[in-house]
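Hi X.,

You mentioned you wanted examples for the new student's onboarding notes, showing what a folding record looks like when two proteins sit in one file. Here is a clean example. The first protein comes first, with its sequence line followed by its structure tokens.
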Amino acid sequence: MENAIELENVVKSFGAKVAVDGLSLKVPCGCIYGFLGPNGAGKTTTLRMVLGIFYPDAGRISVLGQSDPASVKERIGYLPEERGLYEKMRVVDLMAYFGQLKGMSSGSARKRALDLLEQYGLGEWADKKCHFRSKRMAQKAQILATLIHEPELIILDEPFSGLDPINRDLMRDMILQLKREGGSVIFSTHIMEQAEQICDRVLLINDGRKVLDGELSDVRSRAGKEIRLDYDGDGDFLHGLPGVARVNDSGKQAELFMEEDADPQAVLAALVAAGVRVRRFDLRELSLHEIFIRAVGGAKAAAGDTAGVGEMQGEGKDHE
């Protein structure tokens, strides 16, 4: 089996609203796949079709080699965006319960739960109720319950939403560990920087349609370059530089987004000639955030609709 998930021309509507519009994608086995886009883009609807919660109106879906996702549900782990624990249950009982729902025997589920709790530093909580004072510990317990049955495919819907930096790092490390153990991980997010850190492949979706997808390195290498600039001098001059499509200037630092085939050396020469003191001049590939803005922003601006772009520009914030 080459791909964990395949979608071909998938369509899903709710009344007059088309949530997913002709979407095709492939998620190779053993990779971390980022499903990216603003809220309302169709990410959660697509994941729910992959899980068999919704069925498509048209198109084909294959999950772990099967056309009916319900037939492989015991091989899938799912962490929904809206999460919570049964606070009156003991931690080990909660995890064992989720394992039994996925087909494990009572004894096997309990042993696996105890092993995971010890491995991830929650062993002392095994016989305590799920009333965690620490959000970090609650987050650990929830994802361990998702993983108790050792799923081949792990689906995480907005796993970074609402987390502080420490817990975001925890979630990142757990996702990387799942890949090292041979799992296939697909997660949705509107926080581009998280995807850039860990993804092998990405899909950008907007208004239910695919904007682009592929290996992260290929997506970024095809998109163009940006210059990170630390400077002293007149920032107004930055907006007239040759080959610069857009400027994000914060006073002493700036991001210069280059036009296709622009010459960075011409930009540097123009800065020096204008008397701008350059303290740092780094040429790098575009961020996923800028790639999305370029791919989607022009069309939305022409239509007078900048809501989706605005959400992505707030990539460091959570949008519930």
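Then the second protein repeats the pattern, sequence line and then tokens:
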Amino acid sequence: MNILLKFLPKDKRALLELAIRITSSLDTKQKRIDVSNYGIRILADGKVTPPEWATFGSKLGILTGKKN
């Protein structure tokens, strides 16, 4: 993967590295695919609503609700 990154422009490489780091904490390949697809879908129109951000964060495991 690192060899491929070297051929990308710096801005694209930074974005790809960020995406990899964001999804690296997910347990399975399918979870990473699902979260990535959801992120692409919510960003398609260039606008993300607070509920969409909350859903994205919860899918990533970084936002959780109250624990009783």
